[in-house]
Amino acid sequence: MSTVKVSHGDRISSIEVEDGLSLLEAVSKIKDMHIDASCGGKGTCGKCKVKVLKGELPKPSLSESKFLSSKELEDGYRLSCMVPVIGNVDVLVNGINENSNILTEHKGFTGKINPVIKKKYLTLSKPSLDDQRSDLSRILESIPLKNPQVSLSLRRKIPTLIRESEYLITAVFSSDTLLGVEKGNTEDLNYGIAIDIGTTTIAAYLIDMNTGDIVDTISGLNSQKIFGADVISRIEYSMQGPGKLELLQNKIVTQISDLCIFLADRNNVSRNNIYSVILAGNTTMLHLFFGIDPAGIAVAPFIPGFLGSMELHSSAFKDFPLGCAVFSLPSISGYVGADIVSGILATNMHEREELSLLIDIGTNGEIVLGNKDKLFCCSTAAGPAFEGAHITYGLGGITGAVDSAVIENDMIKISTIGNEKALGICGSGIIDIVAVLLKSGLVEFTGRIKDEDEVEGSAAILLQKLKIDKNGPAFIIEEASKTGISDDVVFTQGDIREVQLAKAAISAGILSLLNKAGREISDIDHLFLAGGFGSYISIKSAADIGLIPAELLEKTESVGNTAGLGAISSALSEENYKKTKEIAKITEYVELSSDSFFNMKYMEEMVFPEY
Amino acid sequence: MSTVKVSHGDRISSIEVEDGLSLLEAVSKIKDMHIDASCGGKGTCGKCKVKVLKGELPKPSLSESKFLSSKELEDGYRLSCMVPVIGNVDVLVNGINENSNILTEHKGFTGKINPVIKKKYLTLSKPSLDDQRSDLSRILESIPLKNPQVSLSLRRKIPTLIRESEYLITAVFSSDTLLGVEKGNTEDLNYGIAIDIGTTTIAAYLIDMNTGDIVDTISGLNSQKIFGADVISRIEYSMQGPGKLELLQNKIVTQISDLCIFLADRNNVSRNNIYSVILAGNTTMLHLFFGIDPAGIAVAPFIPGFLGSMELHSSAFKDFPLGCAVFSLPSISGYVGADIVSGILATNMHEREELSLLIDIGTNGEIVLGNKDKLFCCSTAAGPAFEGAHITYGLGGITGAVDSAVIENDMIKISTIGNEKALGICGSGIIDIVAVLLKSGLVEFTGRIKDEDEVEGSAAILLQKLKIDKNGPAFIIEEASKTGISDDVVFTQGDIREVQLAKAAISAGILSLLNKAGREISDIDHLFLAGGFGSYISIKSAADIGLIPAELLEKTESVGNTAGLGAISSALSEENYKKTKEIAKITEYVELSSDSFFNMKYMEEMVFPEY
User: Fold this and answer.
1) Which residues of B43-61 are buried (b: 16+ CB within 10 A; e: fewer)?
2) B362 pLDDT band (50/70/90 cuts)?
3) Is residue B190 within 8 Å of residue B275, measured between CB atoms?
4) Distance CA A146, CA B550 (A)
5) How many other C-beta atoms lie within 10 A of the C-beta of residue B577?
6) From CA B211, how far away is CA B206, in angstroms rounded?
7) How far from chain centre, in Å, is Cα A406?
8) Cis-peptide, bond into residue A301, ω within 30° of zero
9) Which of A129, A216, A451, B100 has the fewest CB atoms nearer than 10 Å to its CB?
10) Quick check: helix, strand or coil at residue B370?
11) pLDDT band at residue B107 using 50, 70 and 90 as cut-offs
């Protein structure tokens, strides 16, 4: 065992770990510390840099020399994923995404409130020789349960409690389970927490089940991020050996526990008055949360362990700090999860006469097309490009991320989240930048950055921002002197290629669903752009780069985190919760990997619109 | 902490206990050690005698002097319930009812087999891009579950198992729960255990769910006996303070675990192939098994914590050695339990056209009257007299108990269980003895033992067996020289009074139900005598003393342990299991404690028939 001491800002933490563990893994064991490592610790992304202040370590590996300059190596910088702990060591960590201010948004719930967990104050008649019903029957006969389920621990609690409260109690129940019994009238204290587990971001909403109000919201980066940026790298990590799946599960369950407690405490809500946690999320994230092996999802034919909704008690999880029901919404396939079912519910496209298209671009890009008669869905390898992965200076939607770009006075003008010095570029910035480059004529429709002699007019001024190094040409988005990273923030030819791939996947996905449904783009009445990404991009830029069909521009609406919204609405309405099951059942999944129409369109759609 | 060393036969055990605990409680903590103490450790029955070999103890208390002769005290005998441990002590215990050979019996199951837990071998189609159902759906869609419930731990197990077994698996399921999944075809290994938890005796049956065969049977004294002979004293013990209920629960759960393991091992049945434990028992015993406070049952208006059937997984119990479903049958009231519901099912009286009477005399005496149209039931304080409690030399049906008595050659001739030297008298012996004494003219119909001068003819010879001491007159049933206890086994005037009380309660109960139903004794077509007691008594003697109506003699049938039989039949037939719920619902409980008709009849029925 060795001690790893980690300095980050003005926080210093220590942890005892077994020798042989990587520095990345060691740091991840510290509560609330997550070093970004989008490759999942394979030494291929170079993002997990730390500075070693003290302590012995093995000599730098080849992959470290690739990502670190000789100056950096001299100064003690190392890739934390590649360095095993072999003795006590002190490290300085900068890039920890602690408390990152991820943007979330929500709309209020406007439907009829009929929460999945209800409370009812009961003034029970006292027993007598003429009324010898058992304590439990006395309660059950006063509430409308279809097929009453009562846990043994609750049955044990009832006889004492019912007498102590002199037969004045509040029952807590779902449609077929008596969940709890409380002394006196506590009807007005009924809270739930809706959670969307995204691959990158987790959003949690504290809901007042009596009023439907969203009392508070919090979000954070998924703490599993250090094990890989996308679902595939997480699944691969889970398959690395015994205990890895449990480690991933533990990470996410702990994080969700912390979010729940934080929400309760910040709002002076007793933990005892939170009766439900309702989860949306993609299929893999739900597998990891429940500790169910997701390996089958990673390889063809992409088989998940489960898809249906889950209704459990929190006691199924070790050390869960709330005693409450845990619901998860149902998924459709390995790559179209409960987050999309939730999105369909939130946009109500399953009940509309008109044809709607829902695009949720998160770490994957899921697309749903249909109306009340029929729904089709697919998942495209849009990849996490729009979340900043695979983009040289890509970032999530955190403070300091370039989130927009326009041409002003023949120059690229950017803004950053929080108006801080630029640290990198997030999804909305990436799309704006590509749109700007295309429309100014610096990049041709094939995605190629033009040569100097091909550029004319005002675009030529922008050429000042082009630099060419061993990695090829790149545009300087913000110069080193103005950034927070002491280096230029650039957008490279390779980054443009990443956007092309993602754009092609989404476009071809849309066309494939239309083809399947026998419809055309002009038949679409609504385009819902969902996800954190959907909320913040310029719809115009998205159309400019051909990510969404230009003719749908006027019909496009940013609908925010529909996964979260759907979860909230399922928590607040038993009917909506039931509808999610129906949606999951009737929505037809279209497998694109074996679809020749998709593959043809994917090639065709690789090009940008011509300007 | 002190060490208590216990010698019993050739077994010596030691246990570390806290000072202050009684010796009785200390010994009870040793696995398989139960000292008989029918008063529940209050120092009022004198049965928990032990010999102290070494160690310091407080001076004998008053109640000890009452039950122990000065010779016994001199020799180191003490009442274990009255002596607190105050230091290390070695004791010799004789009366431990370990491995007592209690009589049980059963009939085979003859109905249609449709067990509550089924197994089905599934040859699942392998997944493909055209069949992307989840692992779980693939299984669930192949078995007929109404509203599928699957535990989290099973969901975790499925993805690996389904692949390892190459999609050839056996599903284990009840009507709405998938309980397990096994590799390959294991259909022919499906066992269940039916258990009747009596206040005095526990009977367990290992059942082959494929054939309906009762593979093996075992029974033992309820290990909670040291905490009281009847339900009231057990409940009182459970109310003595924190942890007492848990202690009682732990005792019975451990005993049932042991019985299950013993049955499995003795029959070379893998513990993994036992999928259900189905429980009958009286209401209080079921409360204690589940750890649910039974306090409300002890006092008017006699309210149980629960009555309905319970469907749990064994994981609800700490350290339960089987991973299986645990079912309990439903009860009717605080004093008419699942054992009686089970008895109704076993005798089929709820489906018969003819009027039937069921009498189950165990530690209480429960009576059911009715037919397919209507059933009435009641519980009488018949008390545990017929199980040997409150009878000076009373014993359960163990080896050495006098189990029959007849007059032969003007002398009382007895037999004992196992033809061993008499140790005491069990229920069937008690009834025979009273019948003999009545019919020979030694006891008059009021229950009074006649004076010498009142006795005539051959009966006078029997007078030789009458002895009179400070406790009044008593008949010597077996002389000290022939018994196994170095003392006369006698039957006293007080014992006769106990039988009168019990007999009056049963008779008055029968009359009360008839009154409620508007029927007469002559309307009864069947009298079923249930319980271990019912199996072994002489029906003729029971009629002779007026315990059962003489006119029903020809219509009376001993039906054995119907509680166990009903549990077996519920385990083997889902339909029967459902019927128990129906029976519990429709059977009307008649509360006798407040019934003036009953009270009047109770007084009238105190007398024996006249001879």
Assistant:
1) bbbbbbbbebeebebeebe
2) confident
3) yes
4) 49
5) 26
6) 12
7) 28
8) yes
9) A451
10) strand
11) very low
A293 vs A309: CA distance, rounded Å:
16
User: Ramachandran region of residue B518, left (φ > 0), alpha (ψ -120 to 50) or beta?
Assistant: left
Q: Is the pLDDT of residue B504 over 90?
A: yes
The CA distance from B493 to B510, in Å, is: 26
User: Residue B68 — very low, low, confident or very high, per pLDDT cuts 50/70/90?
Assistant: confident
Please identify every stretch of chain A with a pLDDT value under 50, giving residue numbers as ranges.
Answer: 96-107
pLDDT at residue B411 in the model: 85
CA neighbor of B405 nearest in space, from B429, B370, B372, B426:
B429
Residue type for position A66:
K
Contact B132 A312 (CB under 8 A): no
Q: Which structure tokens are listed for B491?
A: 């039957």
Q: Provide the pLDDT for residue B35.
A: 75
Question: Which residue of B136, B303, B306 is in closest CB contact with A305?
Answer: B136
Q: How far is CA A451 from CA A212, A460, A468, A494, B407, in A?
A: 58, 11, 11, 16, 125
**Cβ contacts of A333 on chain B, cutoff 8 Å:** 132
Residue A141 φ/ψ region, left for φ over 0, alpha for ψ in the -120 to 50 degree band, beta for the rest: alpha
* Shortest CA gap B230–chain A (Å): 21
- Chain B contact for A327, CB < 8 A? no
**How many angstroms separate the CA atoms of B29 and A131, rounded?**
39
Sheet holding B466-469, edge to edge: B466-469, B472-478, B489-492
Q: Which residues pair with B476 in a beta bridge?
A: B490
Rounded distance, CA B517 to CA B137, Å?
Answer: 52
**Are the C-beta atoms of residues B421 and B482 closer than 8 Å to each other?**
yes
In chain B, DSSP finds a helix count (H) and a strand count (E) of 18, 27
Taking an 8 Å cut-off on Cβ atoms, the answer to whether A303 and B132 are in contact is: yes
CB contact under 8 A, B132 and A159: no
Helices (H), A194-243: 231-238
> Can you give the pLDDT at residue B105?
42
Helix axes A231-238, A244-266, angle to 10 degrees: 120
A589: which chain B residues are within 8 Å (Cβ-Cβ)? 132
Q: Does B305 lie at the interface with A, CB-CB under 8 angstroms? A: yes
Write out A466-512 in H/E/C secondary structure: EEEECCEEEEEEECHHHCCCCCCEEEEHHHHHHHHHHHHHHHHHHHH
pLDDT at B431: 94
Domains of chain A with CATH codes? 2-92 (3.10.20.30), 118-183 (3.10.20.880), 346-383+499-604 (3.30.420.40), 386-493 (no CATH)
Please judge whether A303 and B156 are an interchain contact, meaning their C-beta atoms are less than 8 angstroms apart.
no
On whether any CB of chain A is under 8 Å from the CB of B167, the answer is no
Q: Which residue does chain A place closest to B302, by CA atoms?
A: A132
- Segment B308-325, tens digit of pLDDT: 999 999 999 988 999 999
Mutual angle of helices A427-439 and A493-517, in 10-degree steps? 100
**Is A333's CB within 8 Å of B132's CB?**
yes
Q: Record the tokens describing residue A154, joined without a space.
A: 């609750």
Q: Does A593 touch chain B (CB under 8 A)?
A: yes
Residue type, A434: V
Contact present, B547 and B577 (Cβ < 8 Å): no
Kindly report the pTM of this predicted structure: 0.80
Q: What ipTM score was computed for the predicted complex, to two decimals? A: 0.79
pLDDT at A393: 93
Question: B106 pLDDT exceeds 70?
Answer: no
Q: Residue A379 carries which side chain, given as an amino acid letter?
A: S
Q: Which residue has the higher pLDDT, B365 or A11?
A: B365
Confidence of residue B104 (pLDDT cuts 50, 70, 90): very low
